[in-house]
Amino acid sequence: MIVTLTANPSLDNTVELATRLERGAVHRATATSTDPGGKGVNVARVIAAAQYPTLAILPARAEDALVTALTDRGIAHRLVPTAGPVRSNLTITEPDGTTTKLNEPGHPLDEAQLEALTGLLTEHVPDAGWVALCGSLPPGAPDDWYGRLVRALRPLPCAIAIDTSDVPLRALAAGFPDTAPDLVKPNSEELSQLTGCDAASLEAAAAAGDPGPTVRAARALLDRGVGTVLVTLGSAGAVLATADGAWFARAPRITPRSTVGAGDASLAGYLLADVAGDDPERALQLAVAYGTAAAGLPGTALPRPDQVDRDAVTVTALDAPNPTVGAAAPSTTVADPAAEH
Question: Which CDD domains would you find in this protein's record (predicted)?
């Protein structure tokens, strides 16, 4: 199965507006929704919707509304109890897909709770092909906690994926190669945090058909011990880099509705393809297809397999023959599949 850890879960509330958001103005919502959230929870939601075994590990009270939602949706989960409720996040979406997020800091965790989360992970690793460590860290967790988890999990029979940002991401990278995971999934801004490259220039170059700067930055992470780098580049597409090569994906033109969860859907799509035995090109294709589908859905909704159009995504091998997979597409407007921290 695929096990996810969400150390800072959330209940995600979305408000959809019919007009552009204006500071200080009164707005009337056209729709609202509430979903269980946090990056690892989102990954588990996508995987469960694809009918693949998954387990979400998170700190929460059993009576929390987030846990009730997981139970109602049939998503297997294991909890480390907390004294207070999970955080509540607010997402505001505009008609053009512009997304504004207001995220609470989360409920603090003490050392005993962090150890209990680690224990749950190691308990379920024998059943896991992948363990995905996702999202921000709550108050009380040390900045380098993801690095500690990599060290704890590495001797065990699973592959490790990490999707995080800011201080936890920099702390993880400070321990490379000792803390390097099998897969890291940054967006352009997070790749900038890891390598010092300019995020805007990466996306601009990729949008112009030149993913080379992104590939070079990704390969710098491979040189530091990371096994695979999956970089999401907003409307420019995505890049996958491994020791065997690099690939660039473009997605079909869509009308984005919300960027929330798109990056998590991309990671879930890649993991689903990998456990199915797909080659890197096909895995990248499914990752971008899932991210595109998520960006086209309202609020914090996440895609089912029947909403994912894999064949509409074009993948180009950058340093290998047989350059394309899937149908040709002149451009991509897939919304940023990683903007939700």
Answer: FruK_PfkB_like
